[in-house]
Amino acid sequence: MKILSMGYEEEIYVVKETTEGTLAYPTASELVLAVGVSTIGQEPELIDDEQLRGMRSRLSPIKGRVNTGEWAFTTYIKPSGVLGTAPEADVLFECLFGVKTVTPDTSVVYSLDSSSNLPSFSLWVKKGHTSFAMAGCTVNQGEFSITGNEIGQVAWSGQFMRWYKAGEATLQGTCANGASTCTVDHPERFSSSNTKITIGDDSNSGSGYTITNVNYVTGVITFTPVLAGAGEASGLNVYPWWPATGTEVGRPVHGKLGICTIDGVSTKVLSASLTFVNNIKYYEDEKNGQLYPTSYEAVGFRDVTGTLQLYYYKGAAGYFYRAEEQVQDALIIPCGDVTGKIMRLTCPQIEYKAPNISGDEEVVMDLPFGALGTVVGDDEITCTFV
Fold first, then answer.
1. Using one digit for the tens of pLDDT, what is the confidence trace for 246-263?
2. So what's the pLDDT on residue 1?
């Protein structure tokens, strides 16, 4: 049995949900490679016991609802290398923007949805000896970083409704062919539903066995379907089920490749950063018989902001005027310059905020901006892979 988890062992799968909040199970094709480790978590609500008992000591707080969970990790920008084929982080892009349009052999375009009902996904994260499965995930924020001295990347983050966990334990007694239960020494390492396990050497032909109940007193785990194999002996381990390792899609693109255009003019920049925020809200206050949040909406306006950093060439002085007079420009930020290996962020209208200049050697201008919709609306940004 594995005792200690290592950071390098982490694997992530992202699966679009058919029904929001209903856990979807991954296959090898839904692998997403993260840059560094992810952060995930969901806190229960604990309410101080304010009853007066004639003493000053605090007693155990009262357990309330379960707060919305949070997740975050970063990926490289990785076009597939094939026109009309989605990138590795396809589901994340679709859930951030709302709409995906595929033109075979030509492009994959992620554009904005006029409705507030953005797609949801299930997030599966394996950290060493434990797998975590999060249902009802949404992408609230995507932070794009495309600089001339680094690989292009996106920092993704958002919320989820509920998480499930499966660790490792040891069988206490034989689990025979046709059994629907097994007994383990550490039942607390498993959530009481939805996670999948491998029992001894039996993985149900790679599909796993789904937990339907855990008795945390007796150590009995109930699962479905019934054990298909010949049986597993006492002392063998029960593991988290995990899909076959997927194949990496595409290759990372260096941020130096491709040149930005502002108002149709090629413009050299040192870096381009853009932050897309959906302002999604989960509803956890409704009295609906559920301790977990069960619905969400994108409320209010979305926010698309960014900063261009460039050397302070002579022409850059004009940006002070453009900021003061609210001059609107079209902006295109590419990452990559080879067909099939290009990601392009397009903002039809941006307005500048007051520029900042600094630098002890070359003077550098930071040029913050906000992306705006046209009169048509819901079109302030698109992301295209070509």
1. 889 999 999 999 999 999
2. 67
**Tens digit of each residue's pLDDT (9 = 90 or more) over 362-376:** 999 999 999 999 999
Q: What single-letter amino acid sits at 36?
A: G
Taken in order 10, 136, 143, 261, the sign of the CA dihedral is: positive
Bridge partners (DSSP) listed for residue 335: 343
Identity of residue 221 = I
Residue ranges covered by each domain of the chain: 6-42+64-162+247-386, 172-235
Q: How far apart are CA 134 and CA 160, in angstroms?
A: 6
Indicate the length of the chain as a whole number: 386
Encoding tokens for residue 59? 């007693």
Per-residue pLDDT, 312: 96
In 10 A of CB 263, how many CB atoms? 12
Separation of alpha carbons 311 and 84, rounded Å = 36
Task: Give pTM, 2 decimals.
Answer: 0.95
Average pLDDT over residues 88-103: 98
Handedness of CA 318, 323, 324, 330 (dihedral sign): positive
Q: Which residues of 58-77 are buried (b: 16+ CB within 10 A; e: fewer)?
A: eeeeeeeebbbbbbebbbbb
Q: What are phi and psi of 31, to 5 degrees?
A: -65, 140
pLDDT band for position 280 (50/70/90)? very high
Quick count: other Cβ atoms within 10 Å of Cβ 360? 6
Question: Which residues are CB-neighbours of 197 under 8 A, at least 6 positions away?
Answer: 166, 190, 208, 209, 211, 221, 223, 238, 239, 240, 241
Cα three-residue angle 191-192-197, rounded to 5 degrees: 65
DSSP 88: T
CB 94 within 8 A of CB 383: no
